[in-house]
Amino acid sequence: MRKNAFTLIEIMVAVAIFAILLTTFTGFFLSAVQAQRKALASQELIDNVSYNLEYMSRAIRMARKDMAGSCLTTVGAKYNYETNAERNRITFLNYQDKCQEFFLDGNQLKERKSTNNSAASFEAPLSLTPLNLEVISFLLGPSDSWGQEQKTQPRVTFSLEIRGKGQKPELQPLIKIQTTISQRNPNRIY
Fold it and tell me: In what helix (H) or strand (E) does residue 122 lie, and over which residues does it extend?
């Protein structure tokens, strides 16, 4: 007489092995999904910070000297830009002859431009950072006012600390970056 059936012990061993394999593969899959989410959140943060740094750097590099003193209110005429560390802002006369500034408002990095070359005619500020990112700090300095008074390239240093917000704590990437920007043409008056 032949025996073609499995015993209860064989079936239980097979189910146990299958459950162990399924649990292992599910753990690997969930770990891969979580790693992918972290990578995407970090990449979004890096993309936004990179864009903001490039945008602000380009604008500051192209700044003109404020010969009339209409844009730069604190330091007056013949400067390329002014920084205000207490208010976390930098103001300058841009290449279009409009007063422009970058500043921290709450937890958002913002920009505003004037309708002309006067600081008195600023338009409403525009946010440079999306709402799902939080700017922890935007620090300016040390500013190089000596370079602005002399005929050397003026420089400004700023640092940003930004993180993701509104997500799980493990999916809140944080980036700290510092850069120094010098103008392409220090005596740009035209």
Answer: none
Note down pLDDT in tens along the chain; length 190 residues. Answer: 567 888 899 999 999 999 999 999 999 999 999 889 888 888 988 999 999 999 998 998 888 888 777 787 765 556 778 877 777 888 888 888 888 999 999 899 999 998 877 767 888 999 999 888 899 988 887 554 544 555 667 788 888 899 888 667 777 888 899 888 887 765 544 4
DSSP 8-class letter at 44: H
Per-residue DSSP letter, 47: H
Distance, CA of 145 to CA of 74 (rounded, Å): 12
CA atoms within 13 A on the CB side of 152: 8
- Cα–Cα distance for residue pair 122/112, rounded to 1 Å: 7
- R_g over Cα of the chain: 28
Structure-block tokens of residue 37: 């989410």
Q: Would you say 164 and 171 are in contact if contact means Cβ atoms under 8 Å apart?
A: yes
Q: Which pTM was predicted?
A: 0.76
